[in-house]
Amino acid sequence: MIIKKSLINKSIEYILQHIDEDISIEDVANHCNFSKYHFSRIFKEETGVSVYSFIKRIKIDQSAVSLKVEKDKTITDIGLNYGYSSSNYSSAFSKQHRISPIEFKKAINSTEIANPFCPSEHNTFKSFEHYDEKIVMRRLDDFKVIYERYIGDYREIGVNWYSFMERYKTYIKSDTLLIEKSYNDPSITQLDKCIYDLCITTYEDVELENIITIKGGKFAVYHFNGYVQDIFVTFQGIFNIWLPRSGYKMDERYGLGIYHDIDRKNNYVVMDLCIAIK
Hints:
Helix content is 41%, strand content 22%. The chain folds into two domains: 2-107, Homeodomain-like (Arc Repressor Mutant, subunit A), CATH 1.10.10.60; 132-276, Regulatory factor, effector binding domain (Multidrug-efflux Transporter 1 Regulator Bmrr, Chain A), CATH 3.20.80. Helix 1 (2-17) packs across helix 3 (36-47) and helix 8 packs across helix 10. An eight-stranded antiparallel β-sheet has the order 1-6-8-7-3-4-2-5. The chain is globular and about 50 Å long. The relative contact order is 0.12. By secondary structure, the chain is of the alpha+beta class. It holds the Pfam family HTH_18. Keywords: DNA-binding, Transcription, Transcription regulation.
């Protein structure tokens, strides 16, 4: 079971790092040192989908993020970046999201968003000036972390966090950072298909199978001090309002949420929302 989980994590990591390339099932299988047939069987057993379907879904979801934040690029250019011709991209995008890329881009609301965590609430974005005033550029060091990867309902992230922390409580010290690494935008990807890593920083002498290094670098950092249910809207405001007008471009590294304090009783957190910047 551990070997299979490690294999799937290794393959997903490779796919995510090369998603804007023309990667094949053979490429992923070779990276994992498995035959195409054997690897494909294990991947589907563990994830419920074929390697091809998984790659296709990730490509379309990532392209939707590009449509959202890269306002200066045409739909055709974004499709080409992910290996699609203009007609093929529109067809594949529409099949996955039940809306065409043109309609998707038009529908992006720059003032408010539906919150999947609090669907009954009205969620309005702040102004560009609000985000710009609070965001600072920082160069973060690499993080050595103990991690677990989750593919499933993003609404269960709180429950997963507490279970994860309980499993690794002996490794949590006073200076340990809790880090969430997100691979999907939950306003785009179906909530039950979101991929994210839950991590705690650790020391060089810790030896576990599930240790990786999160690459540091330049990040736009928004210091968040508020209720858990407001994290989603704040992050979306940074993407929808601040990023397109900021003059900065997203890097291929993925976003991080770095928690500094968690008040579980009141659902209140102090954390940094970090977007990788070129």
